[in-house]
Every structure is written in C-alpha cells, then in structure tokens.
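Example 715, ligand manganese (II) ion.
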Amino acid sequence: MAHNKDTITFEEVIELVKNYIHDTESLEHIERAYQLALSKHKGQYRKSGEAYIIHPLNVVKILTEIHADKETLEAGLLHDVLEDCDCTYEEMEEIVGPVVTKLVDGVTKISKLHFSTENEYLVEYYKKIIVGMSEDVRVIIVKLADRLHNMRTLWALPHEKQVKKANESLEILAPLAHHLGIHKLKSELEDLALRYLKPEVFYDIAERLNKTKLERDRCVALMMDEVKEILTEHNIAFEMKGRSKSIYSIYNKLNKGKKFNEIYDLLAMRILVDTTQECYLVLGLIHAKYRPMPRRFKDYIAMPKPNMYQSLHTTVFGIDGYLFEIQIRTPEMDVIAENGVASHWSYKEHKDGAASLQTATEQKLQFFKSIIDLSNDKLSSEDFVNSVRDEVLNNNIYCFTPKGDVIELPLGATPIDFAYKIHTQVGETMVGALVNNSVAPLDYELKDNDIVKILTNKSSTPSKEWVNIVKSTAVKNKIRSFFAKSERELYIERGKDALERALRKRKLPIHNFFNSENLKKICEKLKLESLDEIYLEIGNGKNAPNSVINIIEKEEEEPVMKKVLPPKESDADIIVSGLDMVKVNIANCCNPVYGDDIIGYITKGNGISIHRCTCHNLDMLDNRMVEVSWNSNSNNTKYLSNFLIHSITMDNYIADIVQKACMVGVSIDGIKNMYQTDGTCYDVSCYVTSKKQLEKFFAELIKEPYIKEIERLMR
Ligand code: MN
C-alpha cells in the first residue's frame, strides 16, 4: 500500500486560514502558536517517520475546513505540546494566553489516560471526552480533528492499536461528530475505521463503486443537465452538485440485508437554491417531471433533525429508469448539513463565535442535555459511560410530538421515556399515550417516526413499576428519586410550582409575595402554621392557588361561566391544566383553530373540551356547555386542522400542495392520497396559526384548476 505522507508546511496552512480569517493580529497569534509548537516538538518524529510538527499542522488543516476560530486553530497547533513536550501550563499560558491554554489542557486531559485494564481505560477516556465537551465544545472539535488525522495515518501503527483506535472512533468519536452535526468529520472517521476493522468489506465496496463509477457519473451528469434545463426555464438561480455515498453508509445498508445493486441512492445529487420557498418550488418542478418513489419524500426543512440538519429529500425515477436521491436546500442549510454546530463559526452576525457555538450546543442539541442529565445523576463512571454510549450517542430513534418536534430517544424507549424527555413534570403526571392516534400501552416500544401524544392529569403520579419499563437510565433515576421523596415533599413541591405559576400569570412579583406580613395574613385566614403548609394545601388540592393569592391581592370579579382561554403553546403538544385549574382540550373531532367560533363542553373528569360551534357531536350534548372565547393576545400557537381536497385528476399534486402551504406559512403534518373513481382525494393535516391563515391557504389552493372542492373535516 502506498501512503501519502501528508507533508504540509505552515505557509500552506496559513493560506487556508486566510480564506476566512483576515485580521493581522489573529494571524500573528496563530503564527506565535506555531512557533511554540515547532520549538517544543523539535527532534520528535511520528511513527510514520515524519517530523512531529506535520501532525498538528494537518490537524489545523482539517479545522480550517470547518472554519474553526483562531483560538481553536491555535489549540490545534499546540494540542500535543502539554502532553508530550517539556512545557508547563504556566509557560504556555504566558506565551499564548489563558483561553488557548485551557483548550489545550482540555484536549490533553482526554488523551493523557494510561490505565492498566482496557475497560477502566475506556470508561475514564469516554468520561473525560464528555466532561471536556460540556466545558467547551471546541475541545471536542480539536479532538475530532486530531483523531481524524491519526486515523488517516493509522497504517503506521501495529495491528492491535489500529483495531483499538478504529473501535473507539466508531463507538464514540463518529457518533459525537454526528450528534454535533459535523458530517464531514463523521463520515471520514467511519470510512477509515471500517477500513481497519473490516478491510475485506471496505475494499470490496470500494472496488464495486469503482467499477460502476463511469456509468454512475454518466447518469448523474445527464440527469443534472436535464434538471438544469428545467430550473433555468423557470428562472431559478441554483447550484448543483453530484454526490457520492460514503463506503460506511453503504456497508450499513448491506448489513441490513440490501444487495449492492438495490442501494438506490447511489445516484445522488444536491440542488442549492436561495430561499426555502424555492426549495419547495424546485421539488414541485422535479416531481412534475419525474415520478417520485412513494414514501421517500422527507421534509427536514419543516422538521429539522435533532442535529439541526435541514433539507428536502426525495427519490425519483430519473434518466433511463435509474433511481436518483435528490436533496434540495439553501446554502445556509448546506453549511449546517456539513459543519453542524461548527457552522456557528461561519456566520458573521455571531459576534462572539465561541460563545454562540457553546450556546447552540447546549440549547439546540438534545443529546447534550441528555448527557448533562446523566452526569447530574451520581452514576458510577461505568454506568455513566455505558448510558452515554448506548443510549445517547448510539442506537437512537426519532419520534415526533403532534406539533412535529423531533424527540431523540434510545432504542427500545417507551411512551414514558418520551414524556420525561419533554419535561419531568409531564412524565410524572402522565396517565396514557396516543401513538399515531391510537391508545398505546405504557410499555409500548416506540419506533422511528412514531407520533406520540402524552395525556396527563395533574393529580396523577408515577408508578413504581415504571422503573422496570422505561429504557433510559436518566428516566429510571428520575422515577427512583420521585419515590425517594415523601408524598408530603411532593405535594409541597407541586403546590409551590402551582402558586408560582398563578402569580406569574397575574404578573405579581413572586419573590416578595411571601413577605412576613403577607405570610401572617394568609396563615391566619387559612388557619395554617407555615409556608410549607400553604404549599402542601395547594399541592394536595385543598386550596386553589388563586384563592390563596386573593387573600392578599383582590381580583376583579370574573363571571364564572365565561372563561378566557389562554391557548398556551403546550396545549398543542400535551393536555395540561389550563387557567384556574380548569383543563382545556381542543376537541379532535372538529379541530377548531384560532378564530373559529367555539364552545366549551364540560367532560367528566377531563376538563373542558373546545369544539367548533358547528360540530355535529354537540347535538347530543346537554346543558354542560360553557361559553368560551379565544385569548385575543394569543401568541404563535399552532392548531391542527384536517381537511380534504377533492381533485379531478389521478396525477399526483402532493408536492404542489406542500409548496402552497409553504407560501402561506402553513406547516404540513401529513398528506394521504386516496384514489377515487373521479380523481384523487387528499387527506391533509396541517398546523395553522389562525382561521385566517387557513382560509388564505384554501384560497391559494382553489385557484388551481385541478382542485374541485375543499372541505374541513368533522368526525
Ligand atoms: Mn495529536
């Protein structure tokens, strides 16, 4: 095997840096870090025979590909200096400053572990990686680049070490890169790992790809020419790329029982257009010309993946009947797809790139929160690492809330895991779950793409049995800690929570509500002794939060039968207690949306359900009606609406409908098409902010000559 020696000079690297870092001070800092690394690594050589400095230079080259900031680049240059050279923390800090030194120290801590037994080593190794990341995600990004270059030069190591590094890369580093959305690093790490773990498979796939390359390239080029013509005809500015699958992803599909020639997205292309709206437009144009393969359309624009990935995917029968996988996205989405969280470096509007990177990691990436949850749980190092590796980083499934938010769960997760993942309190008060609109048992094993709606009741509590049902370790611990608390403590906690929510709702300051004077008044009135007792009586339902508040703050009288509904954001997701302890549910027979004429119906034990006034289910109902109205300063709550579109043709217009929805800002939840004798009927469910928006959508649709009629559904 011939090996590329990866020789590279600092001058070459700095040219790459200058592609996106221009100010002289930063460039000088990078040069200063280089000089320090150069002098400290002097006389050291890698196993591959090169001068050691070639390694950090290559690491920085990788980092420039994801536009890493200057501190990260400096840390990349110096990442092995504290570990392998005669250089102290203080000395480095003196020369390059505290920020870079701290990053280098973080990377060093990860690499510095030498334990006797393999297992102990791994446990500590993984734990350090995870801790390092929670302090500053840049530490992990340097580590990923370091590992990638080491994998590229893995041939120089003995077989045993090759296997060990390759396994580590596949078990933890590639999944980390995946969850951070850094696709570039992830797929190369996987391919390299496969090459050392299963060389026969790797070279077999590589060879087959090679053999078919000419034919595939020809097809893609022809297809691109055709698509180009369509887009140019419609005056859409675009950029188009052919795309090749990674060897590892093909290996995965072969592993799932697919045959090589059945892997239909081997022919793949990507189209970049300026706006989201154009993405849908292009999709419509492509579907108009090429027949789409059923169930292969994915809208990751409306529903981004948990690692922030956004794109439209479709597979169509293209040139010569070959199947093509086509991705359509904007240039911004493309950067996120390649660089994930690291794309925060590329945006000029983020003044403090490092802070915005860390914030995005903490807020936008669910796996990160899961890791933090686990680290708060006082698990043994081994349990912690096993949970992170097996439940958080690997074997994930993705389910949806009814509103379309993606929830990331471990394989084998149940509706209880789902509920706790939304919020601990949702988990603790859950009474049941609807999976894809049917009632599911609590131990139901969720599958990819299930839509889960959690039903709660605020007076309900978890069952001890749940510990044996749930999958994720963090949830098990939450349930255990619930039972470790006494009932009294629990009610106090809930009472405090309910009271604070009520205060917030009435815009009263929470912190000084219980000053000694108020506290005395309330205790006297309710004949109680302490603040805890007040909370307890609210928590166990003896006193309503508002009646406690009313002792201090008189409220204007409100007519009892006229409730103003606050359509809280969470209502679309989960049934929660509404205003004044009244639970409010949107009825799913007629699905009223904001602006519809509505009426409330008092159910037995499930609060008030809100119907459209015209709902035919109301005929049977008696005097349990209450007057209700929409909260006029409602925010951006989205309401589910169902309707049928009757068309006069058998042609498929799904893409067109989706595109129109996008134009008016409606998010499509699902479309089913049913062929009838006189045309196709589309059963559409979507989320709208108001009746007005829904009507605007209808107006756009009815303009189309292929549409005969639209009717809102009532079940
Ligand atoms: Mn290194």
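Summary: The two ends are 68 Å apart (CA to CA).
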